[in-house]
Amino acid sequence: MLDKIISLENLFDAWTEFKKEKANKNDVTEFEVNLEDHVFELHEDLKNRTYKHGGYFAFFVHDPKRRHIHKASVRDRLLHHAVHRIIEPIWNKAFIFDSWSSRKTKGIHAAVRRLQKMALQLSHNHTRTLWALKLDIRKFFESVDHKILLDILAKKTPDEQLMNLFREIIKSFNPGLPLGNLTSQLFANVYLNEFDQFVKHELKMRGYVRYADDFVILHKDKEVLINCLPKIEAFIQNRLRLKIHPKKIVLKTYASGIDYLGYVCFPHHRVLRTKTKRRMFKRVNQKNFSSYSGILKHCRAHDLNEELVKAVKESA
After folding, report:
1. How far apart are CA 184 and CA 190, in angstroms?
2. 284-295: buried (b, 16+ CB within 10 Å) or exposed (e) per residue?
3. Residue 303 needs a FRET pair 20 to 30 A away by CA distance; which of 57, 65, 172, 241 works?
4. Average of per-residue pLDDT across 50-69
């Protein structure tokens, strides 16, 4: 696998993918001026085992909550893409179907649709009461334990030289994983796959959907979910050194509406979360209207879309 990752063919293919959405960035443009020299140099450093991951440029974004992003150099991000291209398909086979973040053909909207489909099946077409336990992990990315992650990766990585490369990437940032690395998204799924397997095979939960560190478990018996909660907290703490966010534990009937990934899901429809509506009307303009309008296509929002059109016209 290491030979595939560091091959010139893979590095140049990784560059093509990396460049697609970043072609107008100054650091990317500068790197491309001497692209062949940079790629050959990276290849030689990786081949000779002299590659060292550089530092990070830190900044904040609001999407909507404030997040601390750490951006690596173009050279290091190119390597992240090269690693991801080879490693992701291998790990993807090990993931459960209902892990929905940072995977091809998956995503937020697909996760929400899957949740509603599950609810329909488990409630027998909404003829029986269905309960939902919604949880998320407190400060997940910054809490990922490097040793545990490397031990998990080692299970599917017989090549010690490749493990050394993983260590170089993972230990380039501390604590946890940096928001901003493509490899961080993959490593997050690798890390939480342990929990996914626990829920499916130990707790034997049919109704389970996870997107990043947000997850929902559906069951017709409220007491079953109540009894599962301490088992979940114990596994998260003891196996992964993580903590369930104490203020984000929600247990309610599905029919009363489950707030998940920006939408509130009901038995026969979904609507946009109130906070999302407010943020949308506060920020909408002619440039971003199509993006916001696209979000509304995934929920019941005909009247809301008309209000949005009106708001854009008034702001013009």
Report:
1. 10
2. beeeebeebbeb
3. 65
4. 89
Q: From start to end of 153-304, where are the E strands?
A: 207-211, 214-219, 250-253, 258-260, 263-265, 270-272
Six-digit token string for 13: 């293919």
The residue type at 243: K
Percent helix, strand and coil across the chain, each rounded to 5?
A: 55, 15, 30
Do residues 225 and 250 touch, judged by C-beta distance below 8 A? no
Q: For the segment 107-164, what is each residue's pLDDT rounded down to a tens digit?
A: 999 999 999 999 999 999 999 999 999 999 999 999 999 999 999 999 999 899 999 9
Residues 238-257: b if buried by 16+ CB within 10 A, e if exposed: eebebebeeeeeeeeebbeb
Tokens of 165: 């490369």
207: number of Cβ within 10 Å: 23
Question: Of 20, 36, 174, 192, which is closest to residue 103 (Cα–Cα)?
Answer: 192
Helices 26-33, 8-19: axis angle to 10 degrees equals: 150
Strand partners, 131: 219, 253
Q: Is the dihedral of CA 174, 158, 185, 229 positive or negative?
A: negative
pLDDT on residue 238: 98
Terminal Cα-to-Cα distance of the chain (whole angstroms): 54
- Dihedral sign, CA of 83, 172, 166, 188? negative
* Contact between residue 82 and residue 5 where contact means Cβ atoms under 8 Å apart: yes
Instruction: Give pLDDT, residue 308.
Output: 84
User: Position 201: which residue type?
Assistant: H
Least confident of 38-42, 69-73, 277-281: 277-281
